[in-house]
């Protein structure tokens, strides 16, 4: 792997982080004064000015921006307006819950998307193929909040077999994971089917069949590794979408994760918390994309790591 390739990927990740933080910094400060949101309407002007000076909001926007960038570079992500604690501490308390939901949703994505895509490719043109694709398209098309409410009405209100909110037991994880993972599973199934159909028609698959390889060996040992390259790329993007989808899904189910925290922080204009979450999500997305690029090159050694195509 070339140094030029690594330097380019690191530079792109840093640029992504800077753009994300800058955008959120400007938009949040244009949305209104957070001190007005925090204090009661009858708060004296002296108290308001004291709070604004304490958090540096009495300075000009460029001064606030430069100060914030310096603080981020030094590892200081600011103080939460609501909790009066370091924003990173407030956010990190919610990370374990979001990670549990994210890994569960990823498991749902893989357990549904990959098998359905492979089955649809092997049964191309049959009723099974059409039914599988219809199901995956439906799952991908339904808005997450609508699917979540539908699951709550079905399994909590009507059947009464699953809790509607909270995170006390593993039962609380089932519906949020299904809601978050179903849409990604539909996308993975479609890409898996397309990639498998392309691989199944290649000469090396006919050669493997002529040599007497069993169907299972042909699929697992020959077709899947070659079909995995585009699927891995899409999966990396869908993992990032799972993180963004948590913002919608967690409030629906009262899941105490980062997404739920972000919704409350935006409503309360808790600038430090919002900026910390955005920075964390942007860093995660950059890391995922970097890992996808490395995995792509590992699966297909013909890929030119300088970005000039295959050799």
UniProtKB/TrEMBL annotation:
The keyword Transmembrane helix is annotated on this UniProt entry: yes
InterPro entries in alphabetical order: BPD_transp_1_N (IPR045621), MetI-like (IPR000515), MetI-like_sf (IPR035906)
Transmembrane portions of the chain: 101-123, 135-158, 170-192, 227-253, 273-292
ABC transmembrane type-1 domain residues: 95-296
Pfam family, one: BPD_transp_1_N
Main location: membrane
Keyword Transmembrane: yes
Highest taxon above the source species: Bacteria
Membrane topology field: Multi-pass membrane protein
Keywords: Cell membrane, Membrane, Transmembrane, Transmembrane helix, Transport
Places the protein is found: Cell membrane
Sequence similarity: Belongs to the binding-protein-dependent transport system permease family.
Protein name, UniProt field: ABC transporter permease
Organism the protein comes from: Dongia sedimenti
